[in-house]
Amino acid sequence: MGRQINICHLYPDQLNLYGDRGNMLALSCRARWRGIGLRIIPVEPGDQINFEQCDLLFMGGGQDSDQLLVAADLKKRQADLRRTIEAGMPVFAVCGSYQLLGNYYTAVSGEKIGGLGILDLYTEAGDKRLIGNAVISCGLWQPARTLVGFENHAGKTYCGPGLQPLGTVLKGFGNNGSDQKEGAVYKNVIGTYLHGSLLPKNPWLADHLLVKALEYRGQDSFLSELDDTTEIKAHHAAVYLARSWRHRMGSTRV
Ligand code: GLN
Fold first, then answer.
1. 106 CB less than 6 Å from ligand 1?
2. Ligand 1 center to 51 CA (angstroms)
3. Which of 27, 51, 62, 93 has its CA 20 to 30 A from that of 75?
4. Distance (Å, rounded) from C-alpha 146 to C-alpha 54?
């Protein structure tokens, strides 16, 4: 039997901002081009799901109101998710869902939304949104590689001392606009503020996730080379835009 990856896409209708769904397209294409089967299982609030079937969990970003819509359902899945994440399930979580993997998010309204407490971090909305194209240097590879994406968040995230950042901010705001850190990595969980979609223009991160998903299921994780000329052009164009972008803090009144 050929190789197969099952991706659970948690709350695709509620958590999907700034092209997050494109991450699924990038993973699907890059798997298919290598003859790897890839199935995306959408999971809506209330759906029964056995995370044991899941080789990679993806969650996109969401406005404060969207986070509130899913927070209670997510909480019911806390024990299951904690168990599977501790066992090494790869997770890729963007912005609003990255915040929900932490201890809490205090929204712009002042309402405190409880998180899963799986990542040792908390997030509090500031009075300005952190908006722009961001570039980070990411240590998932040696030597480090750049990742470029779009961020737009009110939340400022502060990580505990034991939590590794995904990268160091070269341009943009990252977790909180002050400590130059972006995202977090814990076991096989990657949390980030970068939308955009992120994966089509950072194909090395897409492949990293495919490898993690294959390894987690004990499958051969060799990935053949693809012709990434277009993706690399897109990456460089986005980095150029980010570097020439005048970063601003916007109003949180959206
Ligand atoms: N609602 C969150 C914030 O503004 C997340 C936004 C997002 O996912 N882009 O901080």
1. no
2. 25
3. 27
4. 28
The tens-digit pLDDT sequence of the chain (254 residues) is 799 999 999 999 999 999 999 999 999 999 999 999 999 999 999 999 999 999 999 999 999 999 999 999 999 999 999 999 999 999 999 999 999 999 999 999 999 999 999 999 999 999 999 999 999 999 999 999 999 999 999 999 999 999 999 999 999 999 999 999 999 999 999 999 999 899 999 999 999 999 999 999 999 999 999 999 999 999 999 999 999 877 666 655 43
For atom 5 of ligand 1, the residue with the nearest CA is 96
Q: Determine the residue type at 151.
A: E
Residue type, 14: Q
**Annotated catalytic, 95?**
yes
DSSP 97-141: HHHHTSSEEE-TTSPEEE----SSEEEEEEEEEEEEEEEEEETTS
Query: Dmax of the chain from CA atoms?
Result: 54
> Which domains does the chain carry?
4-244 (3.40.50.880)
The beta strand positions in the chain, using DSSP E, are 4-10, 37-43, 56-59, 91-94, 104-106, 112-114, 121-138, 145-159, 167-171, 181-182, 184-186, 189-192, 248-251
Contact (CB, 8 A) for 140 and 121: no
Query: Which residue of the set 8, 54, 153, 195 is catalytic?
Result: 195
